[in-house]
Design brief:
The protein contains 12 helices and 16 strands. The strands form 4 sheets. Strands 6-5-4-7-10-15-16 form a 7-stranded mixed β-sheet. It has a 4-stranded mixed β-sheet with strand order 11-8-9-14, with helices on one face. It folds into 2 domains: about 120 residues, translation initiation factor eif-2b, domain 1 (Four Helix Bundle (Hemerythrin (Met), subunit A), Up-down Bundle), CATH 1.20.120; about 230 residues, Translation initiation factor eif-2b, domain 2 (Rossmann fold, 3-Layer(aba) Sandwich). The two termini are about 35 Å apart. It is an alpha/beta fold. The longest helix has about 40 residues. Helices cover about 40% and strands about 20% of the residues.
């Protein structure tokens, strides 16, 4: 992990230290994960989030299980619990499965195998992020040239930067690369209700890197597209099915519909671990996480006295529903930006790019 900013790291004691993303942007605080159960809590409670980082912490959680358990059967049991801690982000299952395969075939010290394998997963995600950054920035430059522009307006939803995937993220990676190339880039940041990952996390990230951005209510994007104020949309994903359907934070589907209606490119940036070749109809078969209604009914912020507090914003007795993700059909996605290049959203193209049998 070579980036300037990191969402987590292994500390000197061999434990995993993470930025508590539930406290951002008001409080910058870290938590030390010492056990597999700590990793499960961090994933479930969204102390860490974002498909890549969930997978990374899943892998490091298995490492922590080995660190605390001498019996491989106990490690397998703990690993399965980690694997099931969140249902939609397939990177979690993918990373835990890699860890278990390495451990069950290990000839050497289990702890060292676990540590090396987990770090390798993280480092390879970093390499994927770098390639996604380059491919995506090339696309964005081409869009600028075709429009005869010297700057670009990008709309994104949720958070898919370095808090979500080391080192540059997925959807934000091309934006960071454009800035490194000296290109004038402005980002429209969806607030991303109900947890406000855009307003809290993406805006915080972009602030750290000095990227110009504007936070918008979730329902504003369509109007901006109509008015020619958006050149391209890009999001990350938590799972992409074999046919190219995309599961991402709730509200993504509506942005894709608006982009399609206004002839605006809509890209999805993902590393290989986000692909799920076992699901061929994402709309029907990708599991969608249902989260607490309190995330909808309450909002957290900084009051006038500078104190972080949580406020009820609905009638006490009103019910709320909180689907964590929605599915954007493949037909609405211009392309997948991956570490292997840009891929069309159909099963044949995805299989060909990732060298599988069609």
């Amino acid at each position: 992990m070579n980036g300037e900013y990191r969402a987590f790291w292994v500390n000197e004691e061999g434990y995993v230290e993470v930025i508590d993303q539930t406290k951002l942007p008001f409080i910058e605080e870290t938590i030390v994960l010492k056990t597999a159960d700590d990793a499960i809590v961090a994933i479930k409670d969204m102390i860490v989030r974002g498909a890549g980082v969930i997978g990374n912490i899943g892998a490091l959680g298995v490492y922590l299980a080995v660190k605390e358990e001498a019996d491989i059967k106990a490690v397998v049991t703990k690993s399965k619990a980690i694997r099931e801690s969140r249902p939609t982000a397939v990177n979690l299952m993918w990373a835990v499965d890699i860890m278990l395969e390495a451990l069950l075939n290990a000839q050497d010290d289990l702890l060292e195998v676990a540590r090396k394998t987990a770090i390798q997963i993280c480092d390879e995600d970093s390499e994927r992020s770098s390639k996604i950054a380059s491919y995506g920035a090339d696309i964005f430059e081409k869009i600028m040239q075709e429009k005869g522009k010297t700057s670009i307006n990008v709309l994104t939803h949720c958070n898919a930067g370095w808090l979500a995937i080391v080192d540059d993220g997925s959807a934000l990676a091309p934006i960071y690369e454009l800035k490194r190339r000296g290109i004038d880039v402005h980002v429209w940041v969806d607030e991303t209700r109900p947890r406000n990952q855009g307003a809290n996390l993406t805006a915080w990230e972009l602030t750290q890197d000095g990227v110009e951005h504007t936070i918008i209510p979730d329902n504003t994007g369509g109007y901006l597209m109509q008015q020619g104020m958006v050149d391209v949309c890009i999001v990350g994903a938590d799972r992409v099915s074999a046919n190219g359907d995309v599961a991402n934070k709730i509200g993504t589907y509506l942005k894709a519909l608006a982009a399609n209606d206004n002839n605006i490119p809509f890209y999805v940036a993902i590393p290989e671990g986000t692909l799920d070749f076992d699901i061929r109809d994402g709309v029907k078969d990708i599991p969608i996480e249902m989260r607490s209604e309190d995330e909808v009914k309450y909002i957290r912020g900084l009051n006038k006295e500078g104190v972080v507090e949580e406020l009820l914003i609905t009638p006490k007795t009103s019910k709320a529903v909180n689907y964590g993700f929605d599915i954007t059909p493949a037909r609405l996605v211009t392309g997948l930006i991956t570490e292997k290049g840009v891929c069309a959203t159909n099963e044949e193209a995805i299989n060909n790019m990732f060298k599988l049998n069609v």
